[in-house]
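Write out this protein's structure.
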Amino acid sequence: MKRIVIAEDDIFMREELALILAKQGYDPYALPSFSHSVDEIIRQEPDLVLLDVNLPGMSGFEICRELKKKGIGPVLILTSRDTLKDELHALGLGADEFLTKPCRRERLLARIENLLRRYEGSRSILDGGDFRYDRETHTIFVHGRSVLLAENQGVILRELMLHSGETVAKDALNTVLWGTTEYIDENALAVNMTRLKKTLAGLGLAYHIVTVRGKGYRFIKNRSPET
């Protein structure tokens, strides 16, 4: 069942969209708040995002830009703002579709179906700029070759890419890898991280992993001495 995240602050519109999607056989999830919209959307691992522009906190434009930087898609902008300037701005930020509301149910569903079909098979691919990473098979594609990572290393890379430029805490990685932060050998994460760093360095990628002392790890561009 395809999961569709709804980022809409009008409660009546949100409920109507969720009902339409559920009746069509989709799995809708409406954001309950907008304090950490990007992180919450990423956690849901959506097959598609329905995104309003006028939201409290970050605007839909800003959210769209951040989602696309992290390889999340497709994104369908659904807004009452109907100027050509807004549409071009949204598409320029990476939005896949732009619809003005209110719109007919049939048109919305047709656009959703088309986007899902277009993205079929590519949802698992994360774009790293000079390489691509398939998070389902844990495979890096770079310079015409493919490199298969061990599962734990692949999971680490996925999490760091989804939060590129941000510090990912050690506890967060331990939880993703082993489902808990308790009774985990503190060296287990370090060993996997060292091996992953060595693999990435050997591929000569523009991105690399740095250690943030006492906090966690960060995936950043431009190679520099690690701390």
